What does this fold into?
Amino acid sequence: MADTGPIFTTVGGDSATSISADDLLNKPAQASTGDKKLEAEVAAKSLSQTAKGYAMILVRVLLLQAVGIALFSRGFLLSRPVFEDQSTCVDRPIEGAFKGECWHPKAFDRAVFVIVDALRYDFVIPQEDDSDLYYHNSLPYLYDMAKKHPENAFLTKFMADPPTTTLQRLKGLTTGSLPTFIDAGSNFAGSEIEEDNWIAQLTGLGKKVAFMGDDTWQALFGNHFNVSYPYDSLNVWDLHTVDNGVIEHIFPTLDNQYGSWDVAIGHLLGVDHAGHRYGPNHPEMRAKLQQMNQFIQDVVQKIDDKTLLIVMGDHGMDPKGDHGGDTLLELESTLWMYSKKPFFGKPIMDYSERTVSQIDLVPTVSLLLGAPIPFNNLGFPITEAFVGPKKQPNYENLSRVSQLAAGQIHRYMKKFGIDTDAESSFWEMLKKSSLNHAETAQKCQEFAQGILEQFRAKWVQFDIPSIYMGLGVLVFTLATVHSFYSNLVDNGSVKDGNSYTVFLVGSVFAAFGYFVGQFIPSLNSLEPMYVAGLFMAIGLISISLPWVIKHLTLRRPSVNRWDLFAVFLTIIHALSFTSNSFTIWEDRILHYLLVSFGVVMFAASFRLEDIKERTIGAWHGAMFVILTKLASLSTLCREEQGDLCRTTFYSSESSVNSPYTIIGLIIVAFALPQIVKSFYKTTASYVGSATVWIGWGLCASILTVAWYWVLDGFDTYSWKLPSFIDPETLHSAKLAVARMVLGATLVAANYGWYSGSLCVKVDVQRNNQDGKVRAAILGYSNIYGSYYFLLVLNIFAAILIFNKPLAGIILSLLLYQALTLLELIDIHDLKGSFIGPVVLGLLGSSYFFSTGHHATIPAVQWEVGFIPTSTITFPFTHLAILANTLGPVILTTLMGPLLVSWKTSPSQDPERFQGQQITSLLGVVLYHSIISITSMVCAFHLRRHLMLWKIFAPRFMLAGVSLGVVDVVAVIAATASSRVTSYINSIFNKPVN
It folds into this structure.
């Protein structure tokens, strides 16, 4: 008998098995070398083609769902039409206006606008002397002047229209128009305003405008500024650069050192940035408000009697210092108008009650400076600015300006096309009535308010056909995902034909749709890109439909109880979107579902026959529950949860973690590698590259991330810097550390992973008695899972740098809990069940909340966009925010193939094995697809619900973005798992020379 070479023992399971070298390599010893090489080449090519086919399944799903989401969003998130009409001095909205004037005689020659970003109203109103809140009584000057000199200073609550993002507020403050919900998404993409606005009106009259501060103004009005000093506005960690720049340049401007001027605008950002970084109740906020208090006093000293000074905020901030939503604290800002000459009428009510809409500033400023009211304006003049300072109010002047504003609104209404007979009759009656001036002003205001409410309703009309088209594409895609998922489960693999068919058909149909859409009248309402996307979807559906129908009609095996349990968990999560109460408590619902899974697994473990498996199963089931409860301790409350929720993610009322969380992250740096090591040791996989990745790399990565937050602590917690380090050096050091982490994890580590260092080791020993050589192959029984998981660790470490210290600790819990899930799936033999993908999806959704997020705009942690860069840099800033927001979803989707490959030895049928891994990925996509479609259907069904824009619309937007990210990560995971399978197959099935 021929010598078969050394005897190999595979180590890592419950027992060691001795096999020969030829058995290990899955090849008959008798085959010739040439035959084996040819067979290996054919097998490798077949596996490569199959892997491409599997990847193209996910690409097809990605394209279809992208089109569906885009169409639905287009129909649901409408933007208002923009008219380029301009008001002119000669074309007055009413007859009999002031002769020889441009609508109204100007009251001031010059105006200075000081915008203190996020100047919440309660920041300027005095509180009890014993108040211990840092933002109280730190900016008293505005209130004191309005109280002592009401004819010179006027203070009022300044109500913003949501969304409370700076770009949208500036548009409202200059055009007098209302934003729509989707406008919040364009806060980082300002472009020149096309609508009529008071800045354009003033420059059209030959006025000179000087600007300094927030560079958003430069993007919107850059062509209208004679003098401009813009500063980067979105680096929320920088509290001083913009403010110092405004202070440096505004006083020389007022002294005419930069030339003559008529309007000066200074937009300061320190208060807003202090809120974002620390929250309002922080010493830095007090320092900023005190600085603003002194700055405003200095500006007052510089102006003359012919200059109007307006100090205002663009929005407020919530208790954490964020904004973007529609809570009362975010909507309430401040307006203070000052003139050295007596000018303002007595406030019509107390300061705590008087409220002015921000769009009311537009007609007020326009008429005071002698300019026409912008064409798109829906605001109404502020009464106190036109009744005069005398005891007997000048109602004649108020009546005139009220008629001008109402007339312009009526003109806009006719342009918009909603001029009904009732409004026209009322307007004609108003012009011909013999009412006294006060009554006329009141009637005009009522008319304007009624029109404003009509426009609010008009701008929430939906494009129903687009919504139905989007839902139709998404529902078909859901059926496609389900049919692929079921086929792969039943048959192990699928031959998808030519992988490039998807690209060919999609491209041809998209190009055809792009051109045809411009000639079909019924499609004129859709932009060309949407028509192209729709036709691409039709093309992809056409090649998928026969396959889907065939496999949906096949008889399926009976569903086991674990699949039913998975469906039950998915349905409960999906149904939570049918109620606003359930939606706002989604985080708690997810915790209950995960705990339920852990308890069921714990109980099911006692039915296992092997006592060792029973013990291990019960242990992991219990740990799954404990880890869920630990993660649930980290909470971020939303306004609607009220007193039933207490935020623990941030310390007190701030936007920063407790400094103790940095210590916790350092502890995790040493604890997490030991935890991962313990899982690897169960299969003897803690060998080879695992010792480098886990024992050294993972620990070093987390420690480096912790070091970044230590450096950040010198700013965040006001730690004292060493004398030889200045703030600029500190900032550079932080950037260097962040980029070092990203370079090490995304470039070096992934290159090392791709190079293919497996977590196996051959331990060769010679038996002195029989002379036989025995080689123990350590890690053989988990060779796929241990290798693929190293990629997960790379991405985990990269995501970690974009998350705050407590979130880093929580993500470490997620990694631990995911490994626990993999063990439970293996012990209970559930690698082909839907329960694994569903629980992975639940984990991603649950940890989204535990890492300090909610389905609200203010909950987005915008500041992390400046961790890798100093300024907004596409795509790094955007990817940083995405990694912070959806890090748990990215990680759990990436771990989809591990549901099959964990604790699996080299397969003799790699094509079928790869199909099983794609099946698990499709299961994750299927779960997220169900959740996303359900949230969209509920948002559409409840489109007249009072809480639509506050609760349901943000949740659907989160679901849409999450689904897109899941699809992209699934394609990456499929490619990576194919690499793992083919690489390992090439080693353990290569011919022996």
